[in-house]
Specification:
Elements (H helix, E strand, L loop, with lengths): L2 H17 L7 E5 L10 H18 L5 E6 L6 H13 L3 E6 L7 H7 L4 E4 L5 H10 L2 E4 L1 H7 L6 H6 L4 E3 L13 H11 L4 H8 L1 H5 L18 E4 L4 H6 L6 E6 L2 E5 L2
Parallel strand pairs: 1-2, 2-3, 3-4, 4-5, 5-6
Antiparallel strand pairs: 7-8, 8-9
Length: 263
């Protein structure tokens, strides 16, 4: 959460984009927590974010998105709005992690700002879900986090019914979800969100691409789109969600080139 360390991470992302085939979307998230040295002077850190860190990340082309953790004990909805509006003013697209524990207005804020995506959303209310639909925000749900922490699962079926595009992601991190197994995430989404295999596949591909503004060229098999494919060792789509604890991905094709395959 120190400026130079945040910039360093973003520079690493940029370098990785230049040196290996996996495409990375860079997000500045200096507003993930309040640094210890700013305890008791929250306004100073928010001022640092809005006046120095966000402008620098945007000016240097280090980030495409800006994210904030709007949650009890972290940043309030009002503080999050201040940070995200500063990001918008500097040309960054905005995202928000919110309603993981409590509904404190972050989901409504995401819709009001037409955020690209909102993550977690375990505690999202009817009002929040309606705001996401109105704002065209992608709901990025993280079922492996609910599984690992023993928390409730987000209201995916209600979101889909309200017209909210739902994506799923791993939330891979050392604190609340130490797993990057996307197939397990897809399994959990099918079982615990009660999504159909077709809905989960869409959530992990096209809607996930939309959550990083890539749906125009990634996420589905269409003429004119980039040939990023996974060939599954499975007789049909349902089988992927029936089997768990095993990697069923047989071949990965990136930009039309076979990146990896196994017998």
């Amino acid at each position: 959460l120190e400026p130079e360390q945040e910039y360093k991470q973003l520079r690493v992302i940029r370098r990785l984009n230049e040196t290996q085939p996996v495409e990375l979307a860079a997000t500045f998230m200096g507003a993930h927590a309040l640094p210890e040295e700013y305890r008791g002077r929250r306004e100073d850190y928010i001022r640092l974010l809005c006046r120095e860190m966000i402008p620098y990340a945007a000016r240097e082309g280090l980030a495409e998105f800006c994210d904030v953790f709007c949650e009890t004990g972290v940043f309030t909805a009002s503080e999050s709005e201040q940070i995200l509006r500063a990001a918008l003013a500097h040309g960054l697209k905005v995202k928000i992690h919110t309603d993981e524990i409590d509904a404190i207005g972050g989901t409504e804020l995401a819709g009001a700002l037409s955020a690209v995506s909102a993550e977690h959303l375990i505690a999202a209310t009817d009002r929040g879900i309606a705001a996401l639909a109105k704002g065209g925000t992608v709901a990025v749900l993280l079922p492996a986090t609910s599984f690992y922490l023993g928390k409730p699962y987000a209201r995916a079926r209600d979101m889909i019914a309200a017209g909210v595009p739902v994506a799923v992601a791993s939330d891979f991190n050392p604190g609340s979800c130490p797993s990057l197994n996307l197939q397990l995430v897809m399994n959990l989404a099918c079982w615990n969100y009660r999504l159909t295999p077709e809905e989960v596949l869409t959530a992990a591909t096209l809607n996930a691409a939309a959550a990083i503004c890539r749906a125009d060229r990634l996420g589905s098999l269409e003429v004119g789109k980039q040939a990023d494919l996974v060939i599954w060792d499975a007789p049909n789509l349902d089988y992927i969600f029936y089997r768990f604890g095993q990697n069923l991905a047989k071949t990965v094709i990136k930009r039309g080139v076979v990146a990896t395959t196994r017998p």
